Amino acid sequence: MSLKTLDNALEILKFFTDETPAWGVRELAKELNVSHSIVHRVLATYEKHGFLAQNQVTKKYVLGIKFWEYGQLVQKRLKLIDAIRPIMHRLCEDTGESVILTILEGIEAVDIEIVESPQKVKYELTVGNRAPLYVGASSKVLMAYLPEEKRAEVIEQGLSPYTDNTIVDPNKLIVDLDNIKKQGWCYSRGEYFEDTFGISIPLFNKDREIVASLSIAGPSYRMPEEKVQEALHMLEKRGKEIQNYLSQIEVHQLFQ
């Protein structure tokens, strides 16, 4: 199928609205100024795959069960974020630091929800920020739980330094990732941005596949090493609450 054919097929779906939920082949072809045989083939293909259904009396097409199924997935994702957000706010209150929910997308880390610290000096990011998996706590804790071939794929893309503390030696990085996986959490200082810290824990789906990380982050001076364990305890406590939601869902990419 060419991109133009796909564009035309998707354009047809835009005509199924609250005002006009049902369409016959000829009336839709007239509206689109397209041959009715072309419209019929497209509608029949959609029907075959469950995206449209044909009323056997009127012969008109309406949206099918597949859209309802996908709608349920979207609704579940939105409800999931709504459930997680209050927990992130409580973690922010616990620690006084910014809280970040990061997902694994391919071989990148994407921040999809952020609760900023109320303090004047704080770690600031924007939703949608992307980072490589080898740098910073929220990313490295994701990479640590990837299969070896996925780790290798990240390394083959190249390891560029963001700061003097970024690990760019592949062997050192692998050792670091193995240690992160063994202990079950990650602590980093100044790897992605200078003078910042991050503490992160992994989050899994029902199949125990890594899908996300939960992190706290802020200026390094507020998190000396002697305070890390206390902060980690608060992070793990809230992380368990979030994990309870994720463990009930049987999809591989929970937030996409």
UniProtKB/TrEMBL annotation:
Start and end residues of each IclR-ED domain: 66-248
GO BP term (any one): negative regulation of DNA-templated transcription
GO molecular function: DNA binding; DNA-binding transcription factor activity
Domain called HTH iclR-type: residue spans: 3-65
Entry-linked PROSITE patterns: HTH_ICLR (PS51077), ICLR_ED (PS51078)
Keyword Transcription: yes
InterPro entries per the UniProt record, alphabetical: GAF-like_dom_sf, HTH_MetabolicPath_Reg, Tscrpt_reg_IclR_C, Tscrpt_reg_IclR_N, WH-like_DNA-bd_sf, WH_DNA-bd_sf
Alphabetized Pfam families for the sequence: HTH_IclR, IclR_C
Residues spanning the signal sequence: none
Keywords of the record: DNA-binding, Transcription, Transcription regulation
SMART domains: HTH_ICLR (SM00346)
Keyword presence, Transcription: yes
PANTHER family referenced in this protein's UniProt entry, alphabetically: HELIX-TURN-HELIX TRANSCRIPTIONAL REGULATOR, ICLR FAMILY, HTH-TYPE TRANSCRIPTIONAL REPRESSOR ALLR
Protein name, UniProt field: IclR family transcriptional regulator
Species in which this protein is naturally found: Brevibacillus borstelensis AK1
